[in-house]
Amino acid sequence: MTSHPPRHAPTDAAVSVRELRKSYGAFEALRGVTFDIASGETFALLGPNGAGKSTTIEILEGYRDRSGGSASVLGIDPHRGGVHWKARLGIVLQSGAEAADVTVKEQVSHFARLYPRPHDVDEIIAAVGLTDKAKTRIRNLSGGQRRRLDVALGVVGRPELLFLDEPTTGFDPEARRDFWELIRGLKREGTTILLTTHYLDEAAQLSDRVAVIARGGLVDMGAVDSIGDASARVPIVRWRDESGQPHSERSDAPAALVARLTEQTGGEPRDLEVIRPSLEDIYLGLVREAEADAVAEEGRA
Fold this sequence. Notes:
Blueprint: E1 13-24, E2 27-38, E3 42-46, H1 53-60, E4 68-73, H2 83-86, E5 89-92, H3 104-112, H4 121-127, H5 143-155, E6 161-165, H6 173-188, E7 192-196, H7 200-206, E8 209-214, E9 217-222, E10 236-240, E11 246-250, H8 254-265, E12 270-275, H9 279-300
């Protein structure tokens, strides 16, 4: 099931993409991708490596030309975006901050001077939890602390739109959850956020909507709890009978099924479990289906 966005962009769209294409010779990295991101929305772009996520992001950031289609970012074609347009963007790249021989505050202050209306440097350093590291040289920060610095550099210019590319790669669980709180705070301030991540729980926690891209095409798009076919979200009940044979059944009413099984067996069946498909389960199903369709299409060519 693929959600079909409107033909024309809504007036409050921070990002609008129509039939976006990118080719490298005979290879199509993007094949007619279309979506909108509303102002103030957190939108996650999901997909396996090589699916077209990075190409899409780089086109929207103005770093890569497109082969076809149209794109509007904060009302501007990114291919023509100038310095004033770029000042409205915040970009947190996957590569992370360099181990520079300057302090955290010096680096954030340097970036702040590049923008017309920056946030207060000390406030931003505090917001990312680095106040006690403000005078520490970047090369002496831990990986998680450098990632927090990346975010500080991305938001100090008071961006209207923030690009987050795999922001928590390498984070420990506690640092990831602290980072999530920071992103939620930015959202409350009205920042539009475009997120790419391989962590499906991260997308579920932070995003208003997700889009799944595979083989350069948009597979599905919608709220986290609405993507995928309805059948993919039906809970699965698993148990073993008296002889030890495993059984599995999908049910829209798992409690009723469990009650029936309990009545039939005179007690709770062995190894009983009710599995509610996660975003990861649905995502993997969508990607597998897209890959199978692509292989079948190639076989017919």
